[in-house]
From TrEMBL:
<comment type="function">
    <text>Catalyzes the transfer of the enolpyruvyl moiety of phosphoenolpyruvate (PEP) to the 5-hydroxyl of shikimate-3-phosphate (S3P) to produce enolpyruvyl shikimate-3-phosphate and inorganic phosphate.</text>
</comment>
<feature type="domain" description="Enolpyruvate transferase">
    <location>
        <begin position="14"/>
        <end position="433"/>
    </location>
</feature>
<dbReference type="GO" id="GO:0005737">
    <property type="term" value="C:cytoplasm"/>
</dbReference>
<keyword id="KW-0808">Transferase</keyword>
<feature type="binding site">
    <location>
        <position position="100"/>
    </location>
    <ligand>
        <name>phosphoenolpyruvate</name>
    </ligand>
</feature>
<feature type="binding site">
    <location>
        <position position="326"/>
    </location>
    <ligand>
        <name>3-phosphoshikimate</name>
    </ligand>
</feature>
<dbReference type="InterPro" id="IPR013792">
    <property type="entry name" value="RNA3'P_cycl/enolpyr_Trfase_a/b"/>
</dbReference>
<keyword id="KW-0057">Aromatic amino acid biosynthesis</keyword>
<feature type="binding site">
    <location>
        <position position="173"/>
    </location>
    <ligand>
        <name>3-phosphoshikimate</name>
    </ligand>
</feature>
<dbReference type="GO" id="GO:0008652">
    <property type="term" value="P:amino acid biosynthetic process"/>
</dbReference>
<protein>
    <recommendedName>
        <fullName>3-phosphoshikimate 1-carboxyvinyltransferase</fullName>
        <ecNumber>2.5.1.19</ecNumber>
    </recommendedName>
</protein>
<feature type="active site" description="Proton acceptor">
    <location>
        <position position="326"/>
    </location>
</feature>
<comment type="pathway">
    <text>Metabolic intermediate biosynthesis; chorismate biosynthesis; chorismate from D-erythrose 4-phosphate and phosphoenolpyruvate: step 6/7.</text>
</comment>
<dbReference type="GO" id="GO:0009073">
    <property type="term" value="P:aromatic amino acid family biosynthetic process"/>
</dbReference>
<feature type="binding site">
    <location>
        <position position="399"/>
    </location>
    <ligand>
        <name>phosphoenolpyruvate</name>
    </ligand>
</feature>
<dbReference type="InterPro" id="IPR036968">
    <property type="entry name" value="Enolpyruvate_Tfrase_sf"/>
</dbReference>
<feature type="binding site">
    <location>
        <position position="27"/>
    </location>
    <ligand>
        <name>phosphoenolpyruvate</name>
    </ligand>
</feature>
Length: 448
């Protein structure tokens, strides 16, 4: 999983992008498919699983707990589950590489088991806060051994005094919500999670699909109350993973920014908890149409067609952030080409992603001649023509790398990112796929 040396690359000014492409499966649903398959009785079959480094790390973890996981090499995977109380003690530390979702959800799953689990990760993951998952686990009775201030590496062990809790999630985080619910699977009684703002609901939908008793109820002031009955009997399922809207985002923005483009991204997940970017781009004047909209496995999917568009700046409402949290870096790139100011606020969670994305985006914009203002939880971008020609530091963050490569396709001069190796954590084949639409990439000027 560790990449030996950085691989710089430049996005080069490109002619129109045209064509129809399929993108890899959704990362959130892929992690959960492997986890819930491992917890279920019987054989779960998954097609369209995202075969990226982050997901392979989760597959490795589920094998370490006793599940048998196989691929036919053509995109179909099987998970032979161990049952919801059948996890076995792993023999060694579990390495999650760059995968925040993988490690945080697995901490929930394993933290209430009566054995020790040790988790490690790469430099980026080892800097990220884990207290947000450890706090509720401690309340449930989990013993936590963390020397580095609630960061990886750390060890969890379930104790004899575990009990379900009612937990109000203090930040907008689907990972924290999910970790608490998954911890509750192991415990008798009802685990309750109160979400002040709605975040992606894949855990709730999929746990129900696997047979758990889980209810959601609207509380006052926009909050959601989720109750899970512990110790469910989960039954294996057949899962089709839809295309990842957070990966589609890069192709969509590239198609909008490069003049004369006409790009269709097929089979994209359109769950409303994930479509904030489409709403925002439309407000900016983007020509986006959804074709062939349908339901697959309880999720809306469709083909997203975009044509090169002149964009204008907008103010993005802060309460939209959870539905597009991973899309702000590429939205900031779109904003750099839009006429006028784009104001993005409510972005505190961007500080604790694979990198401090707010700072990484602001520095990347500045390096390419774009005027922007970074606040503690906000970013204002003044758009227009983008000079480009800058060198961008990615800080082991796949979405920073992809966003600025896209900038290079539409800027006056190439945009260089210091490393593209990390793109494999979420979007293997990104450069080839865009090249197939007509995008140009080149060896980097900073390679020497
Ligand atoms: C995810 C939740 C989000 C998102 C991440 C995937 C998930 O993280 O950024 O890429 O699958 O639950 P937070 O829960 O930290 O917002």
């Amino acid at each position: 999983m560790a990449h030996a040396s950085p691989q710089p690359l430049s996005g080069l000014p490109s002619g129109p992008l045209t064509g129809r492409v399929s993108i890899p499966g959704d990362k959130s649903i892929s992690h959960r498919s492997l986890m819930f398959g491992a917890l279920a009785e019987g054989t779960t079959r998954i097609s369209g699983l995202l075969e990226s480094d982050d997901i392979l790390a989760t597959a490795g973890a589920m094998r370490a707990y006793g599940a048998a996981i196989d691929s036919d090499g053509r995109g179909s995977w099987t998970v032979q589950g161990v049952g919801s109380r059948g996890f076995a003690e792993p023999e060694r530390a579990i390495d999650f590489g760059n995968a925040g979702t993988g490690v945080r959800l697995t901490m929930g799953l394993a933290g209430t088991c009566a054995f020790a689990s040790t988790f490690v990760g790469d430099a980026s993951l080892s800097r990220r806060p884990m207290g947000r998952v450890l706090d509720p686990l401690r309340q449930m009775g989990t013993e936590v051994i963390a020397r580095g201030g609630d960061r990886l590496p750390l060890t969890l062990r379930g104790t004899a005094s575990m009990q379900p809790i009612s937990y109000r999630v203090p930040m907008a985080s689907a990972q924290v919500k999910s970790a608490v619910l998954l911890a509750g699977i192991n415990l008798p009684g009802v685990t309750t999670v109160i979400e002040p703002v709605a975040t992606r609901d894949h855990t709730e939908r999929m746990l129900r699909g696997f047979g758990a008793e889980l209810e959601t109820e609207a509380g006052g002031g926009g909050e959601t109350i989720i109750r899970l009955q512990g110790r469910p009997n989960l039954k294996a399922q057949d899962i089709i993973v839809p295309g990842d809207p957070s990966s589609a985002a890069f192709l969509i923005v590239a198609g909008l920014l490069v003049e004369g483009s006409d790009v269709t991204v097929a089979d994209v997940l359109l769950n409303p908890a994930r479509t904030g970017l489409l709403t925002t781009l439309r407000e900016m004047g983007a020509d986006i149409t959804i074709e062939n909209e349908r339901l697959t496995g309880g999720e809306a999917i469709g083909d997203v067609r975009v044509r090169g568009s002149r964009l204008k700046g907008v103010t993005v409402p802060p309460n939209r952030a959870p539905s597009m949290i991973d899309e702000y870096p590429v939205l900031a790139v779109a904003a750099a080409f839009a006429e006028g100011e784009t104001v993005m606020d409510g972005l505190e969670e961007l500080r604790v992603k694979e990198s401090d994305r707010l700072a990484a985006v602001a520095r990347g914009l500045e390096a390419n001649g774009v005027v922007c203002r970074e606040g503690p939880a906000s970013l204002t971008v003044t758009g227009g023509k983008v000079r480009g020609g800058g060198h961008v530091t990615t800080h082991l963050d796949h979405r920073i790398a992809m966003s600025f490569l896209v900038m290079g396709l539409a800027a006056e001069k190439p945009v260089t990112v210091d490393d593209v190796a990390m793109i494999a954590t979420s979007f293997p084949g990104f450069v080839d796929l865009l090249s197939g639409l007509g995008a140009r990439f080149g060896a980097s000027a900073v390679a020497a």
